Protein 1
Amino acid sequence: MQNGLGRETSSEEEPPQCCEMTAAHERSAGAADFDSSRGVYPSCIVWTWLPGCTQCTAGIVGHMGITNSSGEVWEFVGLGASKNDRELAFGPIMRYIPLSQRFVWRGTVDEGIQRAIDKYTHLGCHPLNNCHCFVAACLHEMRVLGFPFWNCFWWLLAVMVWVTGFFPPRWPAAMCLGTTIGVSGLVAALIFYTKNSG
């Protein structure tokens, strides 16, 4: 069979798919394999609880970071971004959202994180420039989903993790989920009881 260019093609030959990406295209040379049993979450937004605050806010309030393709955890606590090994400053990783390279419109996940780290070198953490702001800056540098204003909507990241974040099959995540449901249920029951007892 001839194609439009007069070239012979086989009926079994498949045309290249421009939007199809294999795992090899998505992974860099030093990429780590995902392994929740060892706490390795490459190219993910990661989250942990703030005991007490997390339970009293039905699981919304917590601490957030981001991992590069090697699984290194980067977070913003104190002055500048800092690196941790398989956990965040306030505890083990309890929720995560994978970042696919397919949704990164500028550079790679690693390049976006590095650009954000460079910008945060001399910045200090405070309520209006916190861990969520740092993760949003990383997403902004990557232009995730083609959206160029992640750093303006940093406050939505907590809701995004709350709604779409995965729980790894590990006991800290189960403890976080169980205590959050328990405390939130207790608070709801107290509110209901006080409203109806008056």
Note: The chain has six helices and seven strands.
Protein 2
Amino acid sequence: KISPKMLKFVVTLALAAVASAELSCEDCSAIGNALSSEASSEAGIKGQIDFLLANGICTEAPAELQCETNFPGFWSAIATALFDGEDGWYAPANLCSDLCVKKTLMKTPSCDDCVERAYGSTTFMGDEEIQVQLISAFMEGGFCEQFGEDAALCATALELVIPAALNMFAAYDSQWAVDFCTNQMQCM
């Protein structure tokens, strides 16, 4: 598990440049809940695994990590923590911390605001400083302890997987955010 305080700090830093004056706290929270739910669902995690494997996540991994075999289970553990609905990347407490301090009176989120918040947050996954802080949050939160004797391999794998995976997510076309906001959030 990631330290909630550390992840909140990392995501808040990332969102500083994504703030929207139009999006309300309630709308942002609905977007965050839906993104968290989607990203941490069994189907969402399987989609992430397929995407990451297809894009060469294992190409740089040392042989002793047996990446092709171990990656699906390892990423499932990472994604469960990273996209947790209470403390994860898209959790309203993190995604909307800048908006939920002030109140606005929007009736429905605009598609532009929804896409900006969802895709903007995801593009910040590619920031090297944020990746370093995220790896630290995983390590300090005791994430690798769940792997017992393989805790040292877990630490090595985190340092390879987190930057590679987050860079792939950050570089992905924004059409997923448009589709999500239109279909899931029914934005206007």
Note: The chain has nine helices and no strands.
